């Protein structure tokens, strides 16, 4: 029998991506919690041997080790047939999320150089709103980003929308992004997300 182990940090949006996919695929897995910076011995040793900085998620399937949340999800989703054009479109969304949206969320959350400043935050919020507008405009046309069903692309981005929703007790005003909210809630408000994917394990 194939054995799955996920090195995980509960609130990490990258880990949430993978836990959503594992749930949707019905995969049973063991969780190893990684309190960031106090890595488990396995994690420290694996990173040292592979000359990689320790980061979660890491998914181990028997003896094979997978890193990078979106790559893990594509691999878990391999029963779906995607054309090369689909993959190109998916990777565009992945890099928009990880290289454009995520850094802006970090600025909005923590400030430049982790120095939060109320005045500067207004500028960070404005920029974040401009980015979310792109998502809102796409979701005006369709229920999900790529197909008429939840795909790896939605699963990649929804955990980051959740992060914005939870920053400073939900102060971010989503009134002008109704499509983003209802799209994200097709995952975030489900029982399976709240009780299985976000289950507290320790
Ligand atoms: N590109 C990676 C990013 C993973 C990542 O940055 N994880 C964070 C947790 S949210 C982490 O492990 N940070 C520890 C560190 O960077 O030292 C992925 O998609 O899996």
Number of helices: 8
CATH class bucket of the largest domain: Mainly Alpha
Beginning-to-end CA distance, first to last residue:
26 Å
Regions with pLDDT < 50 over 5+ consecutive residues? none
Largest sheet: 4 strands, mixed
State the strand order across the main sheet: 2-1-3-4
CATH architecture of the largest domain: Up-down Bundle
Fill in the CATH topology of the largest domain: Glutathione S-transferase Yfyf (Class Pi), Chain A, domain 2
Structural class: alpha+beta
Helical content stands at 55-70%
Chemical compounds bound to the protein: glutathione
Number of domains: 2
- C-alpha geometry: globular
Question: How many strands?
Answer: 4
The string of secondary-structure elements, in order, is EHEHEEHHHHHH
Determine the mean pLDDT: 96
Percentage beta strand: 5-15%
| Cα Rg | 17 Å
Question: Secondary structure elements and their pairing?
Answer:
Blueprint: E1 4-8, H1 13-24, E2 30-33, H2 41-50, E3 58-61, E4 64-67, H3 69-76, H4 84-110, H5 118-141, H6 152-166, H7 178-188, H8 191-197
Helix pairs in contact: 1-3, 1-6, 1-8, 4-5, 4-6, 5-7, 6-7
Glutathione is lined by residues 9, 12, 14, 36, 53, 55-57, 68-70.
